[in-house]
Write a structure and sequence with these properties.
Oligomer: single chain
Structural class: alpha/beta
Radius of gyration: 23 Å
Helix content: 10-25%
Number of strands: 27
């Protein structure tokens, strides 16, 4: 009898605990966040925290005072109102907050049209959600060295100006994205990615991906690039650099499982593919290469 009573009490405790847990979850329909913002957050950061907490994008042009009529051109971030500014420490806090990341309403934390103040330092972190910081300005760059991201990490459409991203040894299970981004350099040495995309990007100095490994494709088509290196990289599907304009391309010792496409590509100085292993075709239709 005592054993039966104990089982019943345990069941009741678990039932009410679960009910209580369900009641404390953030409710996206009401915009209520059950995890209070820190006292050091700015008003704009409090708004962004609540958006992420309730599973919504933190599109900073829609923040109070964000002036959506000014549009969202990251290269013109200096003309944006200060209400679009998020400090780098705040973004780091959001991405590492157990309250927000343990049971997120949405598995992607999305920031848009944000001016990030300070260097975005996310090195040596385990990030359990996908991170999108798109159409934003990061004039002090980003350090993602040796971070592990359980999803995708994107800076699509973002502006870094005369600086770049250190993503050496990063591990991202899905996409690492720089489509339409503008920056000086990107380093992805020894990185492990699902796939990499920098279509229509402008990377003026270098894209260094020595020893990179991707499960799927690597796409830098229609981009304006400086020196590109995929030395000793292992591309799990197709490499696409078609219709791009680059200073040089070094693919020494790279292994590409599928096609290596450089159709209508302009390479100002040199294409270096000694000891590269290509699973299928090397396509150079209408390509122009300065040195052979």
């Amino acid at each position: 009898m005592r054993s039966l009573k104990s089982l019943l009490l345990c069941f009741c405790f678990l039932f009410f605990a679960q009910a209580s847990h369900g009641q404390t979850q953030s409710d996206p329909s009401t915009g209520a966040c059950d995890h209070p913002a820190a006292s050091w957050f700015t008003p704009s950061e409090v708004w962004a925290w609540t958006q992420i907490c309730t599973g919504k994008p933190a599109d900073m042009q829609n923040a109070p005072g964000g002036a959506p009529d000014k549009g969202c051109t990251p290269a013109e971030y200096s003309t944006w109102p200060e209400q679009r500014t998020l400090r780098a420490d705040f973004v780091r806090t959001v991405l590492t907050s157990p309250e927000l990341t343990k049971n997120p309403v949405r598995g992607t934390f999305e920031f848009r049209c944000a001016a990030i103040a300070g260097q975005l330092t996310l090195d040596n972190l385990n990030i359990s959600v996908s991170v999108w910081i798109d159409d934003s300005a990061l004039p002090n760059g980003a350090d993602l060295y040796q971070s592990k991201v359980d999803g995708s990490f994107t800076f699509d459409g973002s502006f870094f100006g005369d600086i770049g991203i250190n993503a050496n040894s990063i591990i991202a299970r899905d996409r690492f994205g720089l489509d339409d981004a503008t920056l000086k350099w990107v380093t992805l040495g020894q990185a492990q990615l699902g796939y990499f995309s920098a279509k229509r990007s402008e990377i003026s100095s270098k894209l260094s991906a020595i020893g990179l490994k991707t499960t799927h494709w690597f796409n830098i088509s229609e981009a304006i690039l400086g020196n590109v290196s995929i030395r000793q990289a292992e591309i799990g599907a197709q490499f696409t650099g078609s219709q791009s304009d680059m200073r040089s391309l070094d693919a020494f010792g790279a292994a590409v499982t599928a096609n290596f496409l450089l159709e209508s590509t302009f390479i100002d100085e040199r294409l270096y593919i000694n000891d590269a292993k290509l699973g299928r075709n090397l396509a150079l239709n209408d390509a122009w290469i300065g040195e052979n």
